[in-house]
């Protein structure tokens, strides 16, 4: 109680009196009480202690003194970590790393041909490295800004040739064959014997930098190291093994959230600005190394990938954005390692969320959706690839996507946004001569049989399949197979709408969204595609789609709108194509016959569809039914007017007659004058008369 009332000088007098026996503490604190002051006392003494040890370490030449200094640094760091004093741990690591970077730079200057030899002679640098990495490995959870110093130290040691290439590599599963990366070969060539590198000189040339070719040539001609040099190199390698560089990334899964975030940010910082061209081969190597490390950390923390992925994706996006002229090893590494990491993160996230409490299933599903989007969203960075870069890599991108789809879909891709990302990439592959086969293989895996198609992915899958129908890659055969996938999509949507748990809202959403897109796209193929086999198959697929849509129990306004906006214009296109053939003079060839054959199938498709939905259209909106029905007959008449082939003429007449008979029998269209039906009666039989003079009310009676 007296302490707060004493001035500093009075307090020193009391302490001095106690030392000479003139006084004593009345109540010495016990062990438990004294521990309460440990953190406060340490906060007062650590700074002068660390400064004193640093001075001793800097001036010492004796190995034992250096070792004692290292032990002191580690001990101070251990106490700081115990009290969660992150600023203290950062300071200690920064102090040690400063000695390492200074020594590494000197080693390159002393022996540029074999800097590892110079490191073997520098016990102080080796001791500082051991201390810095001992603290980083043991107390990394308490590092914040200090990660920047650690990584800077790693890169300096890497330039000395003592950090292995695979330190930061993402682990490879036993059953996984890693995608070969050109830039891996680049690193190997660059580091082997510190020899010359073609890309190094090329990079320097592009950057406008002078380059010491004579030094590289001299390195390549270096003789075998002497026994003394071998011994010094062994000391350097022993130091590297003691530093345990790989543990920095392998043990990142044990880091707390804050430390992990700082590690990823530090890696992005150490990699340099992707927008700036590398000034040297060391800069290129550092960028590749740090990218590998970022992705490795992300994979090792796949259960909390949301902490890492945003920063990683931001960095990769900058890399991709900087590659505007031609592909580079850095872009290549970024693309394919990202694909590999995403492929392996997705199943882990699904596994984690599958263990959520059943009572909170709705919440868990929402979390899972966010998580899945987070991983799949990382692939959206590929959308920003420049055409030249995309063209160089897209064949391999498509193969990686195929593998991702087979391993992760549909179990681990669950959100509409996630499916949209995958399907847009697959659709892009449809236009690439070498990528389209792999892209279509992946799409077929998802869509065949329709079991994997649902309300969240149907629209994206249909868009992707339509891209393959449009594409000429793979010929007519592949386009027709893509139409078959669209048929599977329709069947899946109809089956979903019939299920007992399908609400009216979901049914309406499917009808207006995915199914509506499907019908419009099929009509477009039927009227615009230049390939007759594709056109004809599109019409048949459209017919199947329309006739099976009873499952949606759609209101009359839907069918009236469909005929007005899609089917009647389809008939108009068919008539126009036939008219253009008729105006082509005497020429009537296989192409002309093919267009008429398509028009014949369209006439049948529209006829059957109108008969199926005429009753609800007439019952719910008789006023809108009349112009819709008459517009169909007018288009029939136009097709017959310009037809030159007997098959089309016969199809128009027979389908018109059949429609009249069925609609009259069902009392939808009158065959005799009735009150209130005058417009429909007169309009119907006038339109039918234009098609053929035999089509009169007499055919009904």
Describe this structure in words.
It is a single chain. 72% of the residues lie in helices and 0% in strands. The chain is built from 30 helices and no strands. It has helices at 8-19, 31-35, 38-59, 63-82, 86-110, 115-121, 123-139, 146-159, 182-191, 198-206, 213-220, 227-243, 245-250, 257-271, 281-300, 305-322, 329-353, 361-377, 387-408, 416-429, 436-447, 458-470, 475-498, 504-528, 532-547, 556-582, 590-620, 622-642, 646-665, 678-691. Helix 23 (475-498) runs antiparallel to helix 24 (504-528). The longest helix has 31 residues, at 590-620. The protein starts with 7 loop residues before the first helix and ends in a 10-residue tail after the last helix. 43% of the residues are buried. Mean pLDDT is 85; it is low at 183-215 and 356-372.
What class do helices, strands and sheet pairing give? mainly alpha
Large-scale geometry: elongated
> Roughly how much helix do the residues carry, as a percent range?
over 70%
Rg estimate, integer Å: 38 Å
Reported for the largest beta sheet, the result is: none
Order of helices and strands: HHHHHHHHHHHHHHHHHHHHHHHHHHHHHH
Spans of at least 5 consecutive residues whose pLDDT stays below 50 are 183-215, 356-372
What is the residue-averaged pLDDT?
A: 85
Straight-line N-to-C gap: 118 Å
Count all strands and give the number: 0
Counting DSSP H or I runs of 4 or more residues, the number of helices is 30
- Share of β-strand residues: under 5%
